[in-house]
From TrEMBL:
Keyword Metal-binding part of the UniProt annotation: yes
Cell compartment(s), UniProt: Cytoplasm
Binding site for a divalent metal cation: H185, H229, H284
Keyword Lipid metabolism recorded: no
Upper classification of the organism: Bacteria, Pseudomonadati, Thermodesulfobacteriota, Desulfuromonadia, Geobacterales
Name under which the protein is recorded: 4-hydroxythreonine-4-phosphate dehydrogenase
Keywords per UniProt: Cytoplasm, Metal-binding, NAD, NADP, Oxidoreductase, Pyridoxine biosynthesis
Organism whose genome encodes this protein: Geomonas silvestris
Coiled coil: none
Function: Catalyzes the NAD(P)-dependent oxidation of 4-(phosphooxy)-L-threonine (HTP) into 2-amino-3-oxo-4-(phosphooxy)butyric acid which spontaneously decarboxylates to form 3-amino-2-oxopropyl phosphate (AHAP).
EC supergroup of this enzyme: oxidoreductase
């Protein structure tokens, strides 16, 4: 057992470093998923932290190994029990056998979308059954997913359904900044109606609980405004006064250290200077633009509020790079490390 050192925003409290089994979903076969997975799994340090089991397609992974020229072999396994861990071996649960025309680089296909969907469903089942302690996901293409008839905007919403969870929260995290989102994959025009007092309050609660459990004992949360200059006294909108401030007051009455509403244009400067442990943002790009500006290379997407642990890369399928071997595997590696560390803390009692 080792204690993780508290350094930066991706550090952990009291992580028990036993090696948990992590289900790694291969993502869209036409994107960079297979190649960043094999690159990440080539790192021996990662295999000291966890036992990764890839859920995917042998042909796609063999192609990724050929492209990256990594000295790894693939071993197909059925069991999830105590896997032998030979150095240089990638363990695979083979869920699909895609034809090459179903995984053309850079081209979304219904077969690829359906395959990606199956990997996610299987990983969620492994986590729900306790066979895997966490899942880490490579990127999917939402167009391909929907072409296959799976009408979800992303993993987050699919996992909420698969696990029977009412409200989940998307968090993206790097060493310098964490953001969580009140609304996720929504058209901007729909956002004001979706920013309700209940949704803001529940996002604050889920953020606070998850941070306290996994990342820092007493989270300090900044809650953003929706409108410029916090609505400028109602001149530019009044959601701050009617919705966000009452939600913050209710959270504070529950003992949560949340402050706001704060103007989004200046707040991130203070958040990265160490003033807050997470920033609760009202919509996707409000939070993800600053996060990816700082942490595109090594950011991790974590779904909070699920009964299972799920982390992910912070980028998409990068069709323009797929098959070149040039995509960075840093975010995939960071997602696996975070999944392993969270899994090692899985038994820690949640606060509140
Ligand atoms: N976790 C996920 O599954 C996830 C996350 C984000 C986007 N997506 C999906 O991916 C698809 C493509 O989305 P997009 O084009 O908006 O974003 P993208 O992240 O795929 O690409 C944006 C830019 O970043 C570059 N890039 C992405 N990953 C990189 C890496 N590992 N190394 C170096 N450069 C990298 C790409 O080459 C491109 O120039 C969409 O269907 C989107 O919904 C999935
Ligand atoms: N909003 C995420 C991002 O931009 O990184 C991304 O679309 C992933 O979403 P899911 O984890 O729900 O697939």
């Amino acid at each position: 057992m080792t204690q993780a050192k508290p350094s930066g925003k991706n550090s952990f409290r009291g992580a028990d470093m036993e090696r948990p089994l992590i289900a790694v979903t291969m993502g869209d076969p036409s994107g960079v998923g297979p190649e960043i997975i094999v690159q990440a799994l080539a790192d021996p340090e990662l295999n000291r932290l966890c036992r990764p089991l890839v859920l995917g397609d042998r042909g796609a992974l063999e192609r990724a190994l050929a492209i990256t020229k990594l000295p790894l072999t693939l071993e197909t396994v059925q069991e999830t029990g105590p896997l032998r861990r030979e150095p240089g071996v990638v363990y695979l649960r083979e869920l699909t056998r895609l034809a090459s025309e179903e995984m053309t680089f850079g081209s979304p296909s219904a077969a690829g979308g359906d395959a990606a969907y199956r990997y996610i469903c299987e990983a969620a089942q492994l986590c729900l059954s306790g066979a895997a302690k966490a899942m880490a996901t490579a990127p999917i293409n939402k167009e391909a997913l929907n072409r296959a008839g799976h009408h979800f905007p992303g993993h987050t919403e699919l996992l909420a359904q698969l696990t029977g969870t009412d409200q989940v929260v998307m968090m993206l995290a790097g060493e310098r900044l964490r953001v969580t989102l009140v609304t996720i994959h929504e058209a901007l025009a729909q956002v004001p109606a979706l920013v309700t007092r209940e949704r803001v309050l529940e996002t604050i609660r889920i953020t606070d609980r998850a941070l306290a459990r996994y990342f820092c004992p007493a989270p300090r949360l900044a809650v953003l405004a929706l409108n410029p200059h916090c609505g400028e006294g109602g001149l530019f909108g009044d959601e701050e006064r009617t919705v966000i401030a009452p939600a913050i007051a209710a959270a504070r009455a529950e003992g949560i250290d949340a402050v706001g509403p704060l103007s989004a244009d200046t707040l991130f400067h203070f958040a990265v200077s160490g003033g807050y442990d997470a920033v609760v943002c009202m919509y996707h790009d409000q939070g993800l633009i600053p996060l990816k500006l700082l942490h595109f290379d090594d950011g991790v997407n974590v779904t909070l509020g699920l009964p299972i642990i799920r982390t992910s890369v912070d980028h998409g399928t990068a069709y323009d790079l797929a098959g070149t071997g040039k995509a960075s595997a840093q975010s995939m590696k960071a997602a696996l490390v975070m999944a392993a560390q969270m899994a090692a803390m899985g038994a820690a009692p949640a606060r509140g």
